[in-house]
Structures are given as structure tokens and as C-alpha cells.
UniProtKB/TrEMBL annotation:
InterPro entries: DUF5655, GmrSD_C. Residues 111-211 form the DUF5655 domain. Residues 5-71 form the GmrSD restriction endonucleases C-terminal domain. It holds the Pfam family DUF5655. It comes from Candidatus Thermochlorobacter aerophilus. This is DUF1524 domain-containing protein. It comes from the Bacteria.
Amino acid sequence: MGENWEFIHETLLDTLGNLTLTGYNSELSNSNFEEKKSWYRDSHIELNAYFSGIETWREADIKQRAQELAQRCLEIWPYFGKGNIVQQPEVQPEQSYTFETMHNGDYLQGEVLELFEDFQDSVLRLGEVREEILKNYIAYRVRNRTFVSVVPLQSSLKLYLNVPFNEVRHEGSFCRDVSNKGHWGVGDVEVKVNTLSDISRVMPLVERAYRRQLG
């Protein structure tokens, strides 16, 4: 989806163009587009036949499908249209967030803020790291690739490391495989940070994720 794929994912996830009907939603939730296409190919729902001729699933593809579905709706229910013309929505500028306006940002106070600031300082020391505050989490990126995401909680932090779980599964029981579970942030490995000592334990894994995205 390009450099701003995380923002695009958040803004288009539950929109008309990105929705379909299937009895396998839980199985498909985190699958890539090619895997989903193989399921849709065997679907008996006519709506899913659309995907057989689609090779990519990017922002333009999602918006194109939304327009086509909207047009079909107007043909079926012309009452809701005006001359069957689908009006293009005004393009809104990307919304920027701060620690105060992001979701769960109010948790960044007291001990949780101390945890976050200690972690933030450790991550930014790794090198060419960019911090990006999104609606539901804070992303740390190198070369436009997220290597760790932070979700503030009421009394702790959840980190999502962008490394395959099998690379860290022997590092300790504090690592959790979330490759098949929905969550905010980017990465297959979840780590919960409850104390300052947890940060020193998890930083070697964060550095591994950082170097992995460096290539």
C-alpha cells in the first residue's frame, strides 16, 4: 500500500470496498491477499467472484471496488441516488495524532509514562529511527518499515515486534505468537512490558527487529 500503508489500513479497513461475505472470517482475518483469493475462488457467493480478476489489493483497488459496489447499490435502489451518479467523497487530509489525541493516550501518565519514556529513549538510540504516532499505537520505523509498535495500556505497555515468531520463540515465555490474532500495530510477536526491568530484557529482541528491517 506504499509508504503510508499503516494509515491506509486503519482508514480503509472497515469501508465498503474492503468488505465481503464469507463464513471464514476468523480464519482469513490476518491472511494476505493471495491466501484470501484462494478461499474466495471456491466461494459460492457471487459477490466474491469479483476477486478472481484482481491481482493486487492496494488503496486504489479498494476505492475502485467501493465505487463499483456503490453503483450497483444505486441500480438496485435508485431512490438513494441522484441520477444514479456516485459522488466522489472529498479527500480528507491525513489526520495526525499526538500522545494526547491518540486512542489510549490518556494512559501515558504516572508509571506507564515512565515505562514508555524509558523504552522510547532506548529505541531512539538504536540509530535512524522515526517515531510515528498513529490513532491506536505508536510505531517506530527504520527506512519506512515498522520494526516495533507500542500500545499503551492502563498499567503496562504492549509491544509488537516485526519479526517471525519462530526467530524468538526460544527467548522466553514472555513472547507471545499473535500471527493469527487481530491486534493493533505491526508484528507477529507480542511482549508485555510491566516494569523497567522488562525493558532491558526485551531490548535485544527490539534491536533484532530493527536490524531485520534494515536488511
